[in-house]
Amino acid sequence: MIKTPLLGKTLDELTAITTGRGMPSFTGKQLSEWIYKRRAISIDEMSNLSLKNRTLLNEQYEVGRYLPVEKQVSVDGTVKYLFKTQKNQFIESVFIPEDDRATLCISSQVGCKMNCLFCMTGKQGFGAQLTAQEILNQYYSIPESEQLTNIVFMGMGEPLDNIENVLRTLEVLTADYGLGWSPKRITVSTIGLIPGMKIFLEKSTCHLAVSMHSPFDEERLKLMPIQKAHPIHKVLDELRNHDFSKQRRVSFEYILFNGLNDTLRHAREMVKLLKGIDCRVNLIRYHAIPGIDLKTSDESKMIAFRDYLTNNGIMTTIRKSRGEDIFAACGMLSSSKHV
């Protein structure tokens, strides 16, 4: 019999499970304590539940934790983990240690529907939506879990194309009954999927990162097919309706391709496009993937681009490249070889 995982259930859902089996209502809170705070891996560990109640739960449920099946370590200390999903597919997650930060880059889908030109995940195609359990398991089942200071939804998939499960995951991560993380330490990325973005902005105060990659419509369309359905100017119009000056922050991700989108003409257009939005820009080196004729910008162009934006009032940083030697850097995640 396939058992239902408890990991990923909200407190209300855990309470409904326990009261539906004749247990006291506080048993749901006990379950959340064991699963999310004490990090139990089995129902049998839950010693303040009666043997009868543990037996009842064990008939249909399990905690739902499972370890990664593969691990690769980069020369720079970045670690990539491979997980097998409930549907016998595979996903990758990346642990990035850096000075006083320890970031986990997690996946929200098996593959991706969006097919951005520069992304290996998109070349894999779409396999499945990850459940809240499968997303949270990436957090709970790596050995560095308790060291983490930041979480970014920047792994495989478009998070806002799986908005229901991403929001459930964010609830568990930030709720008092769950991990109690500050939303300021969690960033969710999107290529500009407006319907999901609207829901996210209404229901979460976590940070948002929007993939830009070109300020010009035709150029962005060649890189990102989503531009046809959700043009970047409409994405920006939506963002102008929200307050990013307090707890929530919006940033823009911009991969620099040599001779394509790295000129001062592009930087000037970025300044015009982002006018009136309280934001920051992260410049990212392009990491070459097989079969795609794109090259990254050289250091001097990246610095000139950064300095122009900064001098025009947009906080801009050049993100360090991490894990490229193990295909763990931005745009390089793919589990197609394991399928």
What's the quick description here?
The chain is an alpha/beta fold. It is built from 12 helices and 14 strands.
CATH architecture of the largest domain: Alpha-Beta Barrel
CATH H level, superfamily name of the largest domain: Aldolase class I
Oligomeric composition of the shown chains: single chain
Classify the helix fraction into a percent range: 25-40%
For the largest sheet, list the strands in their spatial order.
3-4-5-6-9-10-11-12-13-14
Q: Please mark out the parts with pLDDT under 50 across 5 or more consecutive residues, or reply none.
A: none
The H-and-E topology, N to C, reads as EHHHEEEEEEHEHEHEHEHHHEHEHE
Name the average pLDDT. Answer: 94
Total helices: the number is: 12
Relative strand content: 15-25%
Q: In total, how many domains does the architecture comprise?
A: 2
The outline comes out as elongated
Distance between the termini: 25 Å
